[in-house]
Amino acid sequence: MSSSLELIGRRAKAAARRLASMDTATKNRAVNAIADALLEQQDAILEANSVDLAMARENGTSAALLDRMLLTPARLAAIAADTRSVAKLPDPIGEIFDQADLPNGLRLRRQRTPIGVVGVIYEARPNVTVDISALCLKTGNAAILRGGSDITHSVAAITRAIQEALTITGLPADAIQSLIDPDREVIRALLRLDRYVDMIIPRGGAGLQRFCVEQSTIPVITGGIGVVHIYVDATADMAKAVPLIHNAKVQRPSVCNALDTLLVQREAAPLLLPAVANDLCAAGVELRCDEESLELLAAQPGAANWRIVPAEPSDFGTEFVSLILSIKLVSGLDEALDVIAAYGSGHTEAILTSDPIAATRFTQEVDASAVFVNASTRFNDGGQFGLGAEVAVSTQKLHARGPLGLRELTSYKWIAEADYAVRR
To answer: Using H for helix, E for strand and C for coil, what is the string for 377-413?
Structure first.
């Protein structure tokens, strides 16, 4: 294993050196060629995906994870469209900033550069293979990818399409390589490949994140675990709040920016909660309510038709990735902030309010990669932020935070020019 991974690392490093000098037009042609290849090889990709799904069903995989794994013609078309959007974005490589002429004779500037080789470890989502490839190529980075063992066939088929597109456009096929071996020791070996890999990005659950942090000799950017709250205060527009909450919870419950816990100011609860329960329960959501919210909802005329159950302590601070929502009543903004500080994961938080003072305090005091005022948490996404595709959503604070788009996949170098200057 070590010798083959060493070879993959060497090839990735060599490819990264070539990519670093590629002009923007060439990189854009390659990214667009990947989009074309996905659609041209759709049948083979969907067939491979069906094999992964069949095996996952046999293994008892949950409906939420099956949804993450699923590729359809519509989803492939959307992935291809997102890929093309990356080609249309400005190329950050070569950008010059912080220029200065210094008294010591140096003409100094910083210039944006590729990171080099990016290792990405991910679970359940074959689309990540394309997102990472497009973003890395646009920024002149090579990538070594390791998708989950449950999507092995899908990743292999997508990688073949990507490498063929690279070859057609004259870029090194080794710029994008996938580790198909399902052995978990491959991940451990990748995390120690610091001679060739410059950064590791894990996309998956808390177990994967912790494993990478503990085992890696390479810098790791963590994120993607979303324990997401929406706080509704008494000044919010209750009619508009209900469809927003529905969108945050129901549109795609298996993703990291989907709503997990609804915090409601007590004064707003009698009007808001019955409408929320009626709407969400009709969509198949189970509501896990604290004592106060359960008592309020149980007394409503439509309660017999709602899936409302008492919340357990563990229902707060949990990323459900399914049609489950915990509900808690709070006295006001201070208590809501305390709950978010105690249970949030630093991913995405939102407030629904008409009070500008409350909105300002919320955005200033909540510690998360993205904070929304009167907007669905589902917007915390690279595409929705105008970044094109994203590699992940970082919840850490060093180097990059929030959706990891093009700029977050770059570093910089200092460049100094002078007229034969010497230090005195």
So the answer is: HHHCCCCCCCCCCCCCEECCCCCCCEECCCHHHEEEE
Residues facing residue 325 across a β-bridge: 287
Tell me, yes or no, whether 319 lies in a domain: yes
**Residue 7 contacts by C-beta under 8 Å, 6 or more apart in sequence?**
none
Q: Could you tell me if 250 and 226 are in contact, meaning their C-beta atoms sit under 8 angstroms apart? A: no
Q: What is the pTM of this model?
A: 0.81
- Amino acid at site 23: D
Specify whether 49 is located in the same domain as 181: yes
Contact call for residues 160 and 41 (beta carbons, < 8 A)? yes
8 Å CB contact between 252 and 369: no
Residues 238 and 217 in one domain: no
For residues 256 and 215, state if they share a domain.
Answer: no
CATH of the domain at 143: 3.40.605.10
pLDDT digits (tens, 9 = 90+) for 241-262: 999 999 999 998 988 899 999 9
Contact 382, 389 (CB under 8 A): yes
Q: Give whole-number Cα distances, 372 to 132, 152, 155, in Å.
A: 26, 36, 34
State phi, psi for 96 to the nearest 5 degrees: -110, 135
For the stretch 281-327, pLDDT in tens is: 999 999 999 999 999 999 999 899 999 999 999 999 999 989 999 99
